[in-house]
Hints:
Blueprint: H1 3-12, H2 20-28, H3 32-46, H4 53-71, H5 83-88, H6 98-117, H7 120-144, H8 149-171
Amino acid sequence: MSGFDRRTTASMQGKPNWLWPIMIVISTLGSPVVLAPVAFVLGVLQIGTTHKDAGLALLLACMASVVSALLKFVPRRIRPDTPYVRRMLFKTYSFPSGHAFSSAVIYGLAACFGYMYLPGPTALGLSLGLLCLVLAVGFSRIYLGAHYVLDVLGGWLFAAATLALLVAFLAD
């Protein structure tokens, strides 16, 4: 692990203390418990639209989240040794961050659907709000001590590639 990763992660963890409960809530917004219902609702909203492939794209995004979880077994990077990790009893590896990946893909698809169905200013506002949420989820994972900075950046990188493929699929 690079010195950059270690130093940057340490400087972002748990400071200031009053943010802790907010970061727990934000992190939860990137968890499967929240993202699965969001994906389901997005899929249901596609019923009756002219974009029949959108539901399939959403299914593929959910499947990509499973692949992201399996990717953790390639580098087998150990999570940071923090009170949060010890308390949560994580059984998975650290790289890539599944919360960063899944939230970027699902909320990214929601932004794409917004552009497909909503008027310009509304779609732009939705997209900016969802981008802020994705960034906040990634930051929360570092703040809480669940991941290193490079884990989150790796999750976002894989998500960007996945989202680009899904958007290209939808554009056809």
